[in-house]
Amino acid sequence: MTRSKTAIVLLGVLGAAILFAVVACGSGVVTLHEADNGGQVVLYKGQVLVVDLESNASTGYRWELAEVDDAVLEQTGHEYQAGWFAVLSPGAGGKDVWRFLARSSGSTTLTLEYKPGYKESAEPAGIFSVQVVVR
């Protein structure tokens, strides 16, 4: 292959990689876990934010949404997923999975509290909070 053909092939591959990177930035799913507590996440409009937190429904505690600006970040789902070992050990934990859609540009604090479902005024046993910026 000549130098000019090699250069064209390399530019084509590089162009495709750059295009893929640009498309990947504006779409997809971003997942957060306990280790992300207190941090910041930047999303683009249309991206989905998933918050995946350890939980144990058999204790009566659950993660509850305490704060979010739903004009910026809209909750689209929430489910409790028992771990695979729950079949062998009925009191075993699982996880709470929350889903949000980045709706419009802006910023909001997303706060979830781990509280007993049977006591409305109880202090949370845990707090998960992140700053979300939507571009």
Kindly list the characteristics that best describe this protein:
four-stranded mixed sheet, globular, 46% strand, Immunoglobulin-like
What does this protein look like?
This protein has 135 residues and is of the alpha/beta class. The protein has a single domain (29-134), classed as Immunoglobulin-like (Sandwich). 17% of the residues lie in helices and 46% in strands. The protein has one helix and eight strands, in the order H-E-E-E-E-E-E-E-E. The strands form two sheets. The chain has a four-stranded mixed β-sheet, with no helix packed on it. Strands 2-8-7-4 form a four-stranded mixed β-sheet, with no helix packed on it. Mean pLDDT is 82; it is low at 4-24.
Ordered list of secondary-structure elements with their pairings:
Layout: H1 3-25, E1 29-32, E2 40-43, E3 48-55, E4 61-67, E5 73-82, E6 94-102, E7 106-116, E8 126-134
Parallel strand pairs: 1-3, 2-8
Antiparallel strand pairs: 3-6, 4-7, 5-6, 7-8
Largest sheet: 4 strands, mixed
Q: What is the CATH C level class, in words? A: Mainly Beta
The CATH topology corresponds to Immunoglobulin-like
**Overall 3D shape:** globular
What percent of the residues sit in helical stretches (DSSP H or I)?
10-25%
Mean pLDDT value: 82
Q: What low-confidence regions span 5 or more consecutive residues with pLDDT below 50?
A: 4-24
Roughly what fraction of the amino acids lie in strands? Answer: over 45%
CATH architecture: Sandwich
End-to-end separation in angstroms reads: 44 Å
Strand order of the largest sheet: 1-3-6-5
Structurally, how many domains make up the residues? Answer: 1
